[in-house]
Design brief:
The protein is of the alpha/beta class. It contains eight helices and nine strands. It has a seven-stranded parallel β-sheet with strand order 3-2-1-4-5-6-9, sandwiched between helices. A two-stranded parallel ribbon has the order 7-8. α1 links the parallel β1 and β2. α1 packs parallel to α2. The structure holds NADP nicotinamide-adenine-dinucleotide phosphate (NAP). The site of NADP nicotinamide-adenine-dinucleotide phosphate has 31 residues, from α1. NADP nicotinamide-adenine-dinucleotide phosphate binds next to α1.
């Protein structure tokens, strides 16, 4: 496993680093002197974040691409090479009832939230295991702990992130490599302007999780209670209850 404190001069690939949680984590890695590769579609916003990483003591490179493009993960890895830390953070949240949603939008969300994360991990994890050090940090969601009417496919994409992270955690455990899922709850970013936690709080939780041993960590005490309680409930209780809570929380 590689912690944030061990990242000086080592490469961290951060997807979705142009804003929100990804940018907050990238900046924090700058404090640790990491060589940060910032990925997203908005090049100007990535350059802006990269400048902050440099002022905070890191080095920074920008790769602007659309990770929902099936060719993108391989292209990205060819360009970047080996990394010490992979931070799979880029995600979108298409909401609303599935019956009212364009299926193409759902596919695009799954291409990013599920497929890009999986392929980047599968491309970069083998070298970490060969070397005997490295970390993969996947950003899931408290929504991944519950069936979420109104956010059904988004939440399910995060259930996938959680499940695959937990299984990979066990696959690589004891081989010097750590895989961990970090689940934010409602966090104030472009995705969720009404969120109550800050991206900086999530960044603190995420980087602390690298030094821990758990396969999955939830940001914020209340979020942790919600996640654990819903995970323990039977689906026929959890889904309507989650729908009721989500409808009232906007
Ligand atoms: N905010 C919350 O309440 C909350 C709660 C739970 C989980 N999360 C998760 O936290 C992660 C970060 O979200 P956030 O809240 O920080 O949202 P955000 O501010 O909207 O940031 C999303 C990031 O993903 C990037 N991205 C989106 N589509 C992309 C694509 N097709 N290719 C490459 N990059 C793409 C965006 O960059 P570009 O626009 O430059 O492409 C941006 O940097 C997501 O996985 C999200 O599901 C957020």
């Amino acid at each position: 496993m590689t912690t944030a404190a061990q990242m000086r001069g080592r490469t961290a690939l951060v997807t979705g680093a142009s804003g929100g949680i990804g940018r907050a984590i990238a900046e924090r890695l700058g404090d640790h002197g990491a060589d940060v590769v910032l990925v997203g579609r908005n090049e100007a916003a990535l350059e802006d974040a990269a400048a902050v990483v440099r002022t905070r003591g890191g080095t920074a490179r920008v790769v602007a691409l659309d990770l929902a493009d099936p060719a993108a993960p391989r292209k990205l890895v060819e360009q970047v090479g080996e990394v010490e830390l992979l931070l799979n953070n880029a995600g979108v949240a298409t909401g609303g009832a599935v019956v009212d949603t364009d299926p193409a939008e759902l596919r695009a969300m799954l291409d990013l939230n599920v497929s890009a994360l999986t392929e980047l991990t599968a491309l970069l994890l083998p070298r970490m295991v060969e070397r005997g050090h490295g970390s993969v940090l996947n950003v899931a969601s408290v929504g991944g702990y519950l069936p979420s009417p109104g956010l059904a496919v988004y939440a399910a994409s995060k259930t996938y992130v959680l499940a695959v992270s937990r299984a990979l955690w066990a696959e690589v455990r004891g081989r010097g490599v750590r895989v961990v899922a970090v689940s934010p709850g409602a966090t104030r970013t472009a995705m969720n302007p009404r969120g109550t936690r800050t991206a900086e709080q999530v960044a603190t939780t995420a980087l602390a999780a690298l030094a821990g041993t758990a396969p999955a960590v939830i940001d914020g005490r209340l979020n942790a209670v919600v996640g654990r309680v819903f995970e323990a409930l039977p689906g026929r209780v959890a889904a309507p209850l989650a729908g009721w809570v989500l409808a009232r929380s906007g």
